[in-house]
Amino acid sequence: MTYTVYLDEVLAGNLVMNFAILWVTARFSRCPAPLWRLAAAAALGALYVMAIFLCPVPLAAGLPAKLALSVVMLLVAFGFPPWRTLGGILVLFYLCSFGLGGLVFGLSFLLGGGPGDPSQLFAMPQHFFWPAVAISLLIAWGVGQAGRTFLRRRQLKGLFHLPVTITLYGRRLRLEALLDTGNQLADPLSHAPVIVVEYEAVRKLLPEAVQRLLSRADGRDPDYAAILESLRDTRWATRFRLIPFSSLGRAHGLLLGFRPDEVEVVFGRERLKIRDVIVAIYQRRLSPEAGYRALLNPRLLETGAGIPFQLAPN
């Protein structure tokens, strides 16, 4: 079986496929690349294939030449990023190339039913090439959009979900906190910012008398007077206080809070060690999916609000 190869189809096919591969690579690498740069890089790759067809040179079709061409295409598409970033983009570029190329190859056989002669197993059915390309481009577009959404969610989670460690009398508790811009609670006496934490998450740090009285509440407002009375003449007496709050459906509420030894917040590559802070106990779940167990006051991350903190190396 023989096939007629048309150079215009070779040029158009490579141009379209190169552009799709570069576009998906840009989506997953999150490196900005204007469409005209992607088109220029795709055209460069297509012209390279045309040159091999017209003037076959063994060295030009070898692995070193192809690797060099890939790097040049990425430099045209993405400019001159740091070498480490370029290496990551190159790996993604090849993964997308193998994935999209294999998808076109497989769809061509799927649509065409494959060659009847086993000796032509790897000969692509030409009549079904462009339909396979069209379907592959739709799939690539969907994968690129899904990848962008997934990475954006991961990025937002990294910005707003922060690891927090609470230390009280030498005992440490680590949990995930949500940076909540709506949490502006402050201790009315010391004006220290307040972190709202689920009772079940912080229960082991509390004295037994407080645990017992909070457990008896069973979702209702606990007997705060009895709790404070139980702590009289103990080392906990100066640690606990009541925090007033207002929310939708609750105009004048109270939360039991305590002053920890220290709260450590991991923010980017830094660790903020904060001592002037209050932990308020919330008796219900804050997240239905248990994605976080605390609500972090954004004032804790401010450096110019008069809140004492230390920066420690991560």
Description:
With 314 residues, the protein is α+β, with helices and mostly antiparallel strands. It has 8 helices and 10 strands. The chain has a 10-stranded mixed β-sheet. A hairpin with a 2-residue loop joins β1 and β2 (171-179). α2 packs antiparallel against α3 and α4 (83-112) runs antiparallel to α5 (129-160). The longest helix has 32 residues, at 129-160. It is elongated and about 95 Å long. The termini are far apart.
Would you identify the regions where 5 or more consecutive residues have pLDDT less than 50? 115-123, 303-314
Q: What's the SSE pattern?
A: HHHHHEEEHHHEEEEEEE
Strand content: 15-25%
How many whole angstroms does the radius of gyration measure?
31 Å
Helix content: 40-55%
By DSSP (H or I, 4+ residues per run), the number of helices equals 8
Largest sheet descriptor = 10 strands, mixed
Which overall shape is indicated by the principal axes computed on the Cα atoms? elongated
SSE layout and pairings?
Elements: H1 7-29, H2 35-54, H3 63-78, H4 83-112, H5 129-160, E1 161-168, E2 171-179, E3 194-198, H6 199-202, H7 208-217, H8 224-230, E4 240-247, E5 250-258, E6 262-267, E7 270-274, E8 278-282, E9 294-296, E10 309-313
Parallel strand pairs: 2-9, 3-8
Antiparallel strand pairs: 1-2, 1-6, 3-9, 4-5, 5-8, 6-7, 7-10
Protein traits:
314 residues, alpha+beta, 10 strands, disordered C terminus
Short description:
This protein is an alpha+beta fold and 314 residues long.
